[in-house]
Amino acid sequence: MLLENKTAVIYGGGGSIGGAMAGAFAAEGARVFLAGRTPAKLEAVADRIRGAGGQAETAVVDALDAAAVNDHIDTVVEKTGSVDISVNVITQEGIFQPLADISTPDFVAAIGKALTSQLITTKAAARHMVKQESGVLLFFGGSDNANTSPGLGNVQVGFDAVESLRRQWAVELAPHGVRTVTLLTGGIIDTFPDIPEMEGPRQSIIDNSPFKRAATMSDVGSVAAFVASEKGRSITSTQVNISFGACYG
């Protein structure tokens, strides 16, 4: 198993992407700790993992509350002895409108929350990983400078901002043996809201791929598990492109 005896903390673990990663990590032997704000969603993911023979625990944690995040990860480390993988898949609330139609306060608030959440959770994990001289910080979404699509509103801007944050973490944490990797997806279309405005972006992702395919949640989990494992130990300070070639960043 790729992640046997590893500990993974997943913020947003009750969502589609977080659940996909959690399931893949657990299938490879990791003990996963799912953190989020909705108990029912967290327990649903945990039940699936346990039903498949994996190990999963849940906790209601607001990723915008630094004290709560730090208390939770300290508890995890007390139980397991380490935190080997930390991933925050909580992104800003997507406003799928032309930029000219989005109010400035809404735009700033959405991206601000995403960056705040990422900063809080990464700081908490890094505090332990630096002591361990090991660990993997995974980020999700990525930055693709070559491609843009109308109708994405604040979404890609937010991903770009998080990727900039990831690059800064990379140079600061690499000397302590901590790897930082972003999964560049170009969009996981089976997680897109089922609204008419998303038909264009959904088809654009497929059309931009030379394979005429889009990555699935299963693809996200499989690649994340590999990257987080020792098999992927040479991958750091970069993006891993899992977009079927739709992204060029």
From TrEMBL:
Belongs to the short-chain dehydrogenases/reductases (SDR) family. This is NADP-dependent 3-hydroxy acid dehydrogenase YdfG. InterPro entries: NAD(P)-bd_dom_sf, SDR_DHRS6-like, SDR_fam. It comes from Kibdelosporangium persicum. The lineage of its organism: Bacteria, Bacillati, Actinomycetota, Actinomycetes, Pseudonocardiales. It comes from the Bacteria. Keywords: Oxidoreductase. It holds the Pfam family adh_short_C2. PANTHER family: DIHYDROANTICAPSIN 7-DEHYDROGENASE.
